[in-house]
Amino acid sequence: MLFKLLAISCFILSAIHIFSTNLWCRSSRLLIYDASRDSNYISPTNATHIAFGIASSSRTWRNRRYYIESWWRPNLTRGFLFLEKTRGDFFPWSPSSPPFRLFEDTSRYNEYNKHKAKQAIRMVHMIAEIFRAKNEGVRWYAFMDDDTVIFVDNLVDVLAKYDHRKYFYIGANSESISSNMFNSFEMGFGGGGFVLSYPLVEALVKNLDVCIKRYPSLYGSDHVVQSCVADLGVSLTLEKGFHQIDLHHDISGFLSSHPQSPLLSLHHLDAVDPIYPSTDRYHSLNQLMKAASADSSRLLQQTICYSKQQNSTFSISWGYSAHVYEGVHPPSTLQRPLETFWPWSRAARPPYMFNTRILSQDPCQNPRVFFFDSVEEVTDGDYVVTCYNQTDVHRSGACSKSENRFLHPMYQIRVLTPLRRYNEAGNRRECCDIVLEAGMNASEVKLRPCMKHEFFA
After folding, report:
1. Which domains does the chain have, with CATH numbers?
2. Peptide bond before 367: cis, by omega within 30 degrees of 0?
3. 215-226: b (≥16 Cβ within 10 Å) or e
4. Which letter, b or e, does each residue of 127-140 get, where b requires 16 or more Cβ atoms within 10 Å of its Cβ?
5. What single DSSP character describes residue 237?
6. pLDDT tens per residue across span 321-352
7. Maximum CA extent, the chain
8. pTM for the full predicted model
9. How would you label 272-289 residue by residue, b for 16+ Cβ within 10 Å and e otherwise?
10. H helices of 31-103, where?
């Protein structure tokens, strides 16, 4: 009897062991998690998730086409260029341009069109038109003018921070206080571009007829959109990389002290001087896009470092310019743009939404200025080299003080940058070291991550 009980007990224990072993094996296989099969999994945002609505006209498209073609990527970027009519000299339509659509007839709203910008209603209605035409797989709708330059990879990185399933209205104010007062400080300016999430566009389209009739006398379409969005309970989410560029003259000072945020757009480049000296607007834009194609994540990002040997401060605006100052200048000063530009409205006081620095009458107080010339990828060293050549556009004369340490010539600055996208933009600036002091008429600067408690200067 005892032997029988022992046999039964051994059988039961053996069965338990076999069952638990098999269960563990099956469970261990289940621990290999395939996120793509999860019904809650959301794939990373990419450029195909954005539909672009570009407002143009038969009058402006021919002369502004190169702005759009500088960033449009056929077979990748999605959306339409909207025109009120076409012209014979538009054809054959360039494969480098976005596909076009004609604005729908909005004459039924004529009695509500008291806007100073008479095209406002059709530009607002463009939201409904692109939503009906392009919505499969779309997460975001981006709207802009035909003279807006977009930096697509940076826009993708920024939008990836937000949940496209929620209501989002993303953009930026004007640089001009008077423009914001005339329109709204709560508005994303359409020239600089603004982005709406899919569910917000869906809600707007359902209420668009009411919105157009509710706001018949606001100046432009972007103010009507902002008002309609506010009526849906949504406020502007500010991203400082969108730029209306409500400025005039030479904006190099502004671009050399870009806000600590990824560059997303530039507008009104026809209203300012060519952004690089000694060239025209077309070639200036090509030069900027050459830097962007190498590393758009760092484009215009400011990095500051110091040379004890030269008693000088280097301020690098990546892919655009390098400023070299005599003496030590803290980042809190250099992050304020040099006022090389003029206000959008001369009568506005104060004119700008940001602090500025005035160019000094003393040439020793102004920087030596070097502009981006070339970029080269050094694959065996895993870094990119950008070169900046001297153009002293901000010096009214030579600095001749006896204590001047800048007696040696320096005609070029070479910047070595890690061969990877910079994902800290908007968090902390990169640091840099001057690894080759001015010799052979050049200095070499190497960018690197800042140390944990590193303090500038």
Report:
1. 47-238 (3.90.550.50), 296-448 (no CATH)
2. no
3. beebebbbbbbb
4. bbbbbeebeeebbb
5. E
6. 999 999 999 999 999 999 999 999 887 889 99
7. 114
8. 0.90
9. bbbbbeeeebeebbebbb
10. 61-69
